[in-house]
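User: I'm writing a short methods note and want a consistent example. For Phosphatidate cytidylyltransferase, I'll paste the sequence; you return only the structure tokens, no commentary, since I'll be parsing the reply automatically.
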Amino acid sequence: MAKNSKPKQHARRHSEASNAPSEPSSPNKMEKPAEPTQKESAQAAYEKKKQTFITRTIWTFVMIAGFFVALFSGHIYIIGLITAIQLVSFKEVISIASKEKKKHEGKKEPNLRFTKSLSWYFLATTMYFLYGESVIYYFKHILLVDKLLLPLANHHRFISFTLYVLGFVIFVGSLRKDTYKLQFQHFAWTHMALYLIVVQAHFVMNNIFEGMIWFFLPAALVITNDIFAYVCGITFGRTQLIQLSPKKTVEGFIGAWICTIIFGFFITNILIRSKYFICPVNDLGANVLTGLECIPNPAFVPQPYSLEIFGLDKVFWIEPMQFHVLGFASFASLIAPFGGFFASGLKRSFGIKDFGESIPGHGGITDRFDCQFIMGFFAYMYYHSFIAVYKANVGDIIETAINGLTVDDQLEVVRGLSKYLFNQGAVSESILECLTSELKR
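Assistant:
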């Protein structure tokens, strides 16, 4: 019995020791939190992509809705939209110049006197010049008969030049020895942004004044091409198109071109039926409900085309615009995407993914409109080269009379017009007598 008691006591002490509460471990011996497993990491990545997709989709519909509301509300709202896009895009592009500040890490950030403010001054000066040119060209019949606005219209270009030179002098006067490179870099970036964004956007605005179709059609073709490039690329894409955009494929590029041409014929056939789209702006207060009235451009009027060249004795009627849209669709598919490639190269050179975060889920405004600016520029040049009909208008005649005739000659023109209108039955004899008597000198 004595021999068996010691093993039992030892077993009892061992059991009590094992049941005793353990002492808290020291901080140095705390276990690290378990790293997420591969499955958890994949789930987190999926949730992030899902949230990004939802945000991107919501804002896509918001942008589409906002665009069509502005489009149907009237030309002045579209002009306001283009102006806002100009301002935000300009801000995003010139902000890239600040990337050079990384070279000054650990040092006090240099105080660039006037340099950043001058970027916005040059923007305001450029917009004053370009907007003024458009307003004077399209609304000279209003400006040139106003006593206050006439001097501004006649001397607009000299005023714009004076404002620019003033900014140039201030910039040179603000140069400092220790910040030469940064200041000239900012100056160069500013002027690049003015050319690539503001100047090209100016031609987009002129397209609006010529008729809403010259704004909407090019923009719609670029968007359509972008969509079909993605669809055709993921469906048939095999061959890489360009190193700047590894996901772009030759098959997607060609497929999008074909689909854009087909869409162009379809959408053009709809747009040319509406005078709201094809008429030049003669009333900035017009909208899709009030509409516009004009004599349609011959490009929108069906013309006969013979098939004799193909050995067929037949004639078919079609609007010339249906042939012009082939050029628009081809440029939107083959050239405009290089505006996006240019932007991609610019971002890669500075190691950034997007120009900004103006649009949740989409990046910056510039990221969405990098192809639109050059497309709008092309539309302006193509329209004025092959489609526009040049003829005298009221603004041109008033400008010629004001700047090229003396006051006596101007009075003689009014008297002659009054007699002509009386003979045409457009004015009464009492009005003719009143004008004849009052205009005698």
